[in-house]
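Input chain follows. Return structure tokens only.
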Amino acid sequence: MALVEYKEKTNTRRFASRLIHPKKNKLVQKRLLTLLAKHSGRSGGTVTVRHQGGRHKRFYRTIDFKRDKFGVEGVIAAFEYDPNRNTHIALVKYTDGDYRYILTPQGLKVGDKVVSGEKTEVKVGNAMKLKNIPIGTMVHNVELTPGRGGQLGRSAGTALMVQARILPFIHLKLPSSEIRMVAQEAMATIGVLGNEDAKNIILGTAGRSRHLGVRPGVRGTAMDPESHPHGGGEGRSGIGRKKPMTFYGRPAVGNTRTKKKQSNRYIVKRRK
């Protein structure tokens, strides 16, 4: 979808931009919609995630991340805007009358046929097991644990490359340049996700952030020493630490990954 800049040159609209989303779909499946509860970053009344709150009312679209409808052909009925993610979703109507939402890859059109299975045609929108996908193919919505549903490559414009087949694992190159081993039985969908211009949107106003549920963030150096590790000092002072710290006093820059993390053994090459 195209990125559009506002024609208005007022202070609030001068640099703002937006994306043109798909037109409203008359085939909306209400059984796939649930009202998304607001938690505002709180658990039991205590703030556990800062800078969250408010936002517009949203419905959650149930996405078929598992693609476990093997051997049943589906037709792309319509495309929709999903307020819960930066890529668009496609409504698939299967030959048995079932409807499901999937993530929309580039090149997929209304009327195209998609199918999932252990081994299918290498075609945009089709899903199959990694062990049957040719080397060099771009994939998205990749499972980390077979049967759990896609967890890797789900944001707009992203894709993973199948680099090598060293059984029982498949080597995938992530957008971050990290190379990771994934089980050969894991499912993946062919293609690169669309709506790649999502990263170029400029909100332009604080109000648009509030509608998205993002509350204002305050610099740590502007706080008092009891509220943030960077706080305190006379006038405009520095952070007063050897390196930046989080609100909770943990390192905020550099390699902050846990050294003994269980999934470290699946990483062949770390990201730069």
